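Can anyone check this?
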Amino acid sequence: MSEKPSVLFVCVHNAGRSQMAAAWLAHLAGGRVEVRSAGSDPGDAVNPAAVEAMAEVGIDISAEQPKVLTVDAVRESDVCVTMGCGDTCPVFPGKRYLDWKLEDPAGQGVAAVRPIRDEIKAMVEGLIEEIAPEASR
């Protein structure tokens, strides 16, 4: 890994799970980790329920836009975390790949998104412990 580890979060639409994960990592790691997110089939906008759920914990993702997954984004990342996009993520030797099994918040209200948000936070905290432990102290 480089001096500053980089993480790419990938889900299908880059509208919910990967956006929340990227926001949590940026928030909790305090700039010690480079954060990217992308989708294999990006949506038109970030899921409003995800925006609302993150706002409830003081994190604003309302200005984020879904981004298309590129080979370069994977190549430039130390860790690639997929969330339900299956085999659409390009694989490069030497990269670390994690697949987080998370419910898809698409089409669900904020009440259904809150537990997904909280589960993502716990997973991100574990990831920080592994790749940038001093950032979580």
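Reply from J.R.: I decoded it. Strands lie at 6-11, 34-39, 79-83, 96-99.
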